[in-house]
Every structure is written in structure tokens, then in C-alpha cells.
């Protein structure tokens, strides 16, 4: 793949409005497939349609990075899609972490050795694409551009990027445009709309019933073609976004793809779609979401946002200067961070030297367990310059050399107003740190906890709870495993939790008698009845796992509850309960280790087993950047500073 990337990098940097100067280089590289590409060019020369000819030139001259992945290891995943298709037909709803999906995934992974290092063959488009495929793609997209009233002001350059491309990622080349145009014919025949925004909104709403995120299937390592996505119906946000772009473009809607490869304060990134509005601006929206738009409501902070382009972008750097992830991103995307957040151009003095002369430095944010490059900048007079950087983040400038990173500065905070504050550790000034979490609690986590407010825990001696007595009503937002003592002395055979609304979001519910430290066991009872293989049932509230939960009915008109049948009346004195959560609070019995950043590495402050739902570390160097790691389980962790006795997350 690297050979393809840098073989053509200095050459193909043209927009579709220009007369191409280097088509011959692609034709030469296409070898036996040259005749297919020449057929396309000759076809439109004979047709005497200058716009279609320019469109053909645009696609061909920008084919250098376009490819599909093939080979035995890729085909090992083929059975997955038939199984997902069967599950989709069998079950009306499949939660994002449904045990049945994980079971099937694990079974296939073992059978086909998915966990081994996968190898794939690169099938470059210019050596394999057929003339008929390109001609069909150009003709269909051109027709929708010229005959759709909502595209009457769409410029040719916009058409080239937002409607014309014959592929989205590295998926198998399939006749997706014709297939999806026919599939959504009934939608087009009945939908009423005034502009692109309305049309895209209504089509996106239709898609939410057929595709969804799935945390298990998102591990599929390749881009899905249209037929794979039709079968799977689920995947990572990238899979959903790419499919949505196909659907929209196949139906004449000029749609793009924006992405944050890595949030500035999170260990993962995000993809989403944009619709090109009549005023030339892009309106962002999440694929197949109930609400159209609303990216500004995400709690995470943008560092960099890129827009995927079909045109190759100029990048005059040597392969060894930058990590591959930056090279691949920047050669096929443009920086649109300013459209999403306040940005600043930075001039950063390099306080740590390197043993080699470097032309570039990289600016990093913290990924899971490591610093990850977000962008690069030129070095001049011992300063590194970085453009359009998102704010309210912690950065670290580093040198990149042969796959390794070396600090060039101390970590620093880029504040919302553009001011920079360096995080300078004071080893001689010690402090005591009381810590409550290893990762921030985001709004989705907080909302799950809030949904328990006014929930009731009841006792009864009748299985229908006709004589139910409320033992406890939740009146404060639970942020961890909560415990309450009861004054009631009456024994009950049946107990249950009844949510205030439809969604329960209850992870665990435990009952105790007297001063016993052993929870009372019983048979799980509740409503609705959900197959164990689907998950999120009332049984999950009593399985001893904080990671699973009882979801309940999301429909506010429905009724749900989770309870236990003790077999005989028991006198309950204490109750413990926990909301559905990220489990990033301190868990009793787990082993934790605190680290602080010390110039070029994370230094340990020692390990502790938690005996409470908070943990205290003493004699910690102050004014530093820290990480708390749970060695017993869980992957999420986030850097923080410690100010006025509180963790400030970065």
C-alpha cells in the first residue's frame, strides 16, 4: 500500500475543472487494464459531452489511491454476513452488545482464525476497474445532477466530489448506485420536500430502521460493500456513514463524509455525513440517527476534523517524515476543523532536543495508553508551527522517527482563548490525591444514572405484587454502587425494581439481611420476557456484572420491572444498586495504579487494591499530568490534572 501511495503522490493534484496533464501516467501504470480506461475516454469523446469527459478524467487521474482489499484472509469473513442476515430476520431488535452476536462472532473468529495477523491483497482500481462500471457510474450520477431540481445550482466541481465518485472507501466494487436507486424508488415516489436538507433528513430517518451501530461487528476490519451492509445491517460508525453516503448519492443528494480521526479528549474518533447545502456550506449529521444534525451536542472536543475527498491532496513530505496514519489521511482529505470549533495557529518552542535534524514535528493528544499524532508542523528556528488546532485540550509536541515518538516539549493546555499553559511537574512539592474515577463521566453515562430517579424498590408476598410496599425510592442520582439501609422489618418473598419511566438502565440490584455480607439469592423474575441471547433482560440486573444491565422497555407506554423470588419471606435490611454505567468509577476489590508524566514516560506512583469506592494516593508530585489505571479490568482511562482537590479531565 505504501508503494502505491508514494509512487504517485507528487503527481496527481488536480481539480476536475482542470485539463488533466498526467492521465498518461495512470494509463501507463494500468498495464493490461489500459484498454478499459481508454474505452471510457473514447466513449465520451464520441459522445461529445465535455462535462462527462471531464468527469471521466477526474475519476481516472485520482485513481492512484483507490483500491479494494482481497485475498483468503478477507474472504474468511464472508460467513459473517450470512449469519448477521439470518439474525436480522429472526430478531426484531438486536442490542448493540447482544450475546447472540458476540457468540456468533467468537465462534467464527475461532473457526477462521480471525485473531491472527491478517494479510490482504491490494487490487488497485486502475488495474482492475472495467470501462462499463465507470461509464454506468458517470451516466447515472450525471443524470441525477442534471434532472434533479434540488441540484440545479450544483457546480461541476461540487458534482465531482459529492455525487460522482464510484466508491467511498476500499470496499469491493459493486453496482451500488443502480441497486440503491431502485431500492429507494418508492421513497422518492412518495416523499415531499423543498430542498436538499429536507430530502436528506427524510431519507436518513428511513435508514435508521435498517442500519445501526453494533459494538461487536464494528471490529470487522474492512470497509463493507453495499451487499455486505444490506446483509449485516450493523457495524461501526464508519460502515454506517459509508453506506449512507452511497444511499444519498445514488438518489441524487450531494453528500460528503467528515471525520475526527481521534477526538482531542477521547481514545477514539468519529465519522459522520454532511449534505452540501444550496449556499455552499456543509450541514453535518449522524448516519441513520433519529435527530438530523446536532454534532455540536457531542461532549467531546475536536482537535482535527477532515473532509474526505476523491481528489488527491498535495502533500510534499517524505514518507519517513510522518507516521502512516497522517500520510494516508492528509493525502485524501482536507482540513475543515474551523467549521466545527474555535481553532488557533500555534508556534511552540521545542524545549527538548533530538539527536537528528528534523524538518517536521508532530502534535499529539493522549490516546489509550499512548500519545497519538494528530497533525504535523514545520520546524523553523527551534519552533514547531501547527495550523488550525482545536482548543481546550492537552497537547504534547513530539519528534517522529522510524515509528517511534520522542517528546519535544512538556505537555501543555491550549485554553479556549488561545492561551497556552505548560504542565510542569513539581517533584519536590507533594500532595495527597483522593480519586473517584479513572475516566470522565460523559452525558450519556450521566443520563443513564439520572433515569433511575424516582425509581421504586418494592417488597411483596404475592407474585403479582398486588400487596406491594415501597421499601425505597431513589431520590438522588446514583454515581456508583449505592447502598441504603431500610427501617422496614416486615419479611417479603418477592422484591422488585420499578423504573419511573420505560427505560430501566439498572446494572445491579442486591438485597441483604441483618449484617450479613452475603447477598440474598433468589429466582430472577420480571417483565418483559427477553431471550437471554438478546440480552439487556431483567436477569442481567442480578448476574453480578456491572457491565450488563436491565434496559426495560424504551416505549414510555410500556411497563417493565426486574425482581427476585426468594422462595420464602426474607427480612431485608440493606439494598445495593448500581445504574447502567461505564464502570469507570472505583470498584471495591480492583487493583489500581497511578501514573504521572515525567518528561518522556509515565512514572508509577504505586498500586493499591480499592477497599472503598474512592482511592487515596499520598506523596504524589504536584502540578502534573496523571493517569489512573484499573489493572483488574476495563480499557478506558483519561489524563487529568488535579486542581483544588478535584480531577480535571483532559
From TrEMBL:
Keyword Transferase listed: no
Keyword annotations: Coiled coil
One Pfam family cited in the UniProt record for this chain: Transglut_core
Statement: the UniProt record of this protein carries the keyword Coiled coil: yes
InterPro entries: Papain-like_cys_pep_sf, Transglutaminase-like
Protein name in UniProt: Transglutaminase-like domain-containing protein
Coiled-coil intervals: 27-54
Database matches in SUPFAM superfamilies: Cysteine proteinases (SSF54001)
Domain of life: Bacteria
Origin species: Pseudopedobacter saltans (strain ATCC 51119 / DSM 12145 / JCM 21818 / CCUG 39354 / LMG 10337 / NBRC 100064 / NCIMB 13643) (Pedobacter saltans)
Gene3D superfamilies named in the record: Galactose-binding domain-like
Domain Transglutaminase-like: 200-287
Amino acid at each position: 500500500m505504501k508503494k502505491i501511495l508514494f509512487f504517485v503522490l507528487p503527481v496527481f493534484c488536480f481539480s476536475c475543472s482542470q485539463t488533466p496533464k498526467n492521465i498518461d501516467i495512470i494509463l501507463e501504470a494500468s498495464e493490461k487494464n489500459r484498454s478499459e480506461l481508454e474505452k471510457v475516454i473514447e466513449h465520451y469523446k464520441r459522445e461529445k459531452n465535455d462535462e462527462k469527459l471531464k468527469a471521466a478524467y477526474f475519476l481516472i487521474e485520482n485513481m492512484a489511491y483507490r483500491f479494494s482489499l482481497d485475498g483468503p484472509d478477507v474472504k474468511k469473513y464472508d460467513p459473517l454476513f450470512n449469519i448477521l442476515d439470518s439474525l436480522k430476520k429472526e430478531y426484531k431488535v438486536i442490542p448493540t452488545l447482544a450475546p447472540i452476536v458476540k457468540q456468533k462472532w467468537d465462534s467464527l473468529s475461532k473457526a477462521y482464525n480471525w485473531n491472527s495477523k491478517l494479510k490482504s491483497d491490494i487490487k488497485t482500481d486502475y488495474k482492475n476497474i472495467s470501462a462499463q462500471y465507470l461509464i454506468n457510474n458517470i451516466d447515472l450520477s450525471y443524470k441525477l445532477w442534471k434532472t434533479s431540481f434540488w441540484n440545479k445550482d450544483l457546480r461541476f466541481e461540487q458534482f465531482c466530489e459529492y455525487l460522482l465518485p464510484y466508491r467511498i472507501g476500499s470496499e469491493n466494487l459493486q453496482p451500488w448506485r443502480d441497486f440503491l436507486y431502485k431500492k429507494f424508488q418508492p421513497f422518492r415516489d412518495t416523499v415531499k420536500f423543498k430542498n436538499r436538507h429536507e430530502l436528506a433528513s427524510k431519507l436518513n430517518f428511513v435508514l435508521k430502521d435498517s442500519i445501526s451501530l453494533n459494538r461487536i461487528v464494528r471490529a470487522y476490519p474492512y470497509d463493507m460493500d453495499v451487499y455486505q451492509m444490506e446483509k449485516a445491517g450493523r457495524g461501526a460508525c464508519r460502515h454506517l456513514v459509508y453506506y449512507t453516503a452511497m444511499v444519498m448519492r445514488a438518489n441524487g443528494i450531494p453528500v460528503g463524509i467528515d471525520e475526527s480521526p481521534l477526538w482531542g479528549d477521547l481514545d477514539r474518533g468519529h465519522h459522520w455525513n454532511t449534505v452540501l447545502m444550496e449556499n455552499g456550506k456543509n450541514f453535518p449529521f449522524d448516519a441513520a440517527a433519529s435527530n438530523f444534525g446536532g454534532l455540536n451536542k457531542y461532549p467531546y472536543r475536536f482537535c482535527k476534523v477532515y473532509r474526505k475527498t476523491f481528489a488527491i491532496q498535495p502533500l510534499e513530505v517524505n514518507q519517513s517524515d510522518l507516521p502512516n496514519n497522517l500520510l494516508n489521511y492528509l493525502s485524501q482529505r482536507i482540513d475543515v476543523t474551523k467549521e466545527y470549533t474555535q481553532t488557533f495557529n500555534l508556534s511552540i518552542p521545542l524545549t527538548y532536543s533530538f539527536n537528528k535534524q528534523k524538518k517536521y514535528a508532530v502534535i499529539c493528544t493522549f490516546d489509550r495508553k499512548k500519545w497519538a499524532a494528530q497533525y504535523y508542523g514545520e520546524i523553523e528556528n527551534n519552533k514547531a508551527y501547527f495550523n488550525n488546532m482545536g482548543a481546550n485540550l492537552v497537547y504534547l509536541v513530539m519528534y517522529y522517527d522510524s515509528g517511534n515518538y520522542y517528546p519535544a516539549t512538556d505537555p501543555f493546555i491550549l485554553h479556549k482563548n488561545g492561551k497556552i499553559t505548560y504542565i510542569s511537574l513539581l517533584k519536590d512539592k507533594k500532595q495527597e490525591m483522593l480519586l473517584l474515577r479513572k475516566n470522565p463521566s460523559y452525558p450519556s453515562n450521566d443520563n443513564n444514572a439520572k433515569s433511575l430517579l424516582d425509581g421504586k424498590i418494592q417488597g411483596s408476598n404475592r407474585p403479582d405484587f398486588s400487596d406491594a410496599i415501597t421499601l425505597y425510592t431513589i431520590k438522588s442520582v446514583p454515581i456508583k454502587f449505592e447502598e441504603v439501609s431500610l427501617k422496614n422489618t416486615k419479611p417479603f418473598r418477592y422484591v422488585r425494581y420499578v423504573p419511573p419511566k420505560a427505560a430501566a438502565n439498572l446494572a445491579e440490584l442486591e438485597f441483604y439481611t441483618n449484617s450479613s455480607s452475603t447477598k440474598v439469592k433468589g429466582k430472577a423474575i420480571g417483565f418483559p420476557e427477553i431471550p437471554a441471547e438478546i440480552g439487556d433482560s431483567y436477569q442481567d440486573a442480578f448476574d453480578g456484572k456491572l457491565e450488563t444491565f436491565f434496559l426495560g422497555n424504551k416505549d414510555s407506554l410500556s411497563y417493565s420491572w426486574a425482581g427476585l423470588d426468594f422462595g420464602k419471606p426474607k427480612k431485608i435490611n440493606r439494598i445495593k444498586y448500581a445504574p447502567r454505567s461505564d464502570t469507570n468509577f472505583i470498584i471495591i476489590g480492583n487493583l489500581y495504579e497511578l501514573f504521572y508524566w515525567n518528561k518522556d514516560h509515565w512514572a508509577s506512583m504505586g498500586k493499591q487494591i480499592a477497599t472503598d469506592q474512592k482511592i487515596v494516593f499520598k506523596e504524589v508530585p504536584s502540578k502534573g499530568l496523571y493517569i489512573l489505571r484499573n489493572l483488574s479490568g476495563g480499557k478506558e482511562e483519561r489524563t487529568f490534572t488535579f486542581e483544588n482537590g478535584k480531577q480535571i479531565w483532559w
